[in-house]
């Protein structure tokens, strides 16, 4: 009889302990599942409250911390990707606009094909080629590993190229650009295409 009572009491204690343990783990697992579903839907700012996980024990706290770190990295990577695409679109608009204005000017016979026009086309097409190559390097950019090919460049040359590129587009809008001489000895260490 004593053995039967002990077995019943032990079974009741085990049942109560199991029920309490399931209550302790249920909420953190529910929170983690909800957060994982949100991240899967593209809501990368979702985080699991760490105070809820601590109640379930150190293993659940570690799992929650790892999830939050992963979600933060995904969120940062996505933000960087959006910024990079926005920057690329903005950067591509300039050479396309310059080339478009020059093409219109050539068609309307207000711009003549000469060495300066050829230089503008070469420079702007070079920029577009470089930007297209940059698109291929998106993963490296997300890791902040874009390589700059710096070299000494004459500031006067850069200013002249920029002036030549923008003179016609501004002229079509009624704005006349004037270029002041830049000393030839002024040199900058830069990536010409970027």
Short characterization:
It contains six helices and two strands. The chain is mainly alpha-helical and 194 residues long.
Widest sheet, order of strands: 1-2
Low-pLDDT stretches are none
Mean pLDDT: 82
Distance between the termini: 88 Å
What structural category characterises the helix and strand content? mainly alpha
- Rg, please? 32 Å
Largest sheet: 2 strands, antiparallel
Shape: rod-shaped
The DSSP helix count reads 6
Which band does the percent of strand residues land in? under 5%
Helix and strand pattern = HHHHHEHE
Strand runs, count: 2
Into which percent range does the helicity of residues fall?
A: over 70%
Structural summary, described in words:
By secondary structure, the protein is mostly helical. It is 72% helix and 4% strand. The chain has six helices and two strands, in the order αααααβαβ. It has a two-stranded antiparallel ribbon. α3 runs antiparallel to α4 and α3 crosses α6.
